[in-house]
Amino acid sequence: MLRQTILRAARRLALCLILLPAAAPARADERAAWTALEQGGHVALMRHAVTVPGVGDPPGFRLDDCATQRLLSEAGRDWARRFGAELRERGVTGARVLTSAWCRCVDTAELMDLGPVEVFEPLNSFFGTRGDGAEQTAAVRDLMAAWQGPGTLVLVTHQVNVTALTGIYPASGEVVVLRPGGEVVGRIRP
């Protein structure tokens, strides 16, 4: 009996020692991201919150009609509200909030309730060649490079855009925090 208890404890300790190195960098990465946001003058580049299942949008969707697009799920709507509340609780102000014209991005930005939301077309998805990825990415890079604060520049966009700007494939709702020049400071995962 004692031997089994010792073996179980040893296994648990070994598992913790295996998992700890993987968890520590993620926590440090997230701490760095939050610290940067709390200081202001940084960029919060985020993929819209989680949507109803699917990839892309249905054939024939229109940007001027949300009923034709893939939209946020209830979990996504809830996450956007909670994330916005956490930002406000930490004193992070969205000095400027820009979003893609897609309804799932606009809804994410509005539900965070950080201030007025503006559509910035270079944040629109270019998945499936719906836009000019290189031109849009350059325009967003220029916008970020010019950011001086005060507060945080919040950009709500799509996976393809975040990946083009950072090389990171973000989860739905993930935030990549950058210095204005585009250097990644850290990530906040939902």
TrEMBL record:
It comes from the Bacteria. CDD domains: HP (cd07040). Residues 1-28 form the signal peptide. Keywords: Signal. This is Histidine phosphatase family protein. It comes from Skermanella cutis.
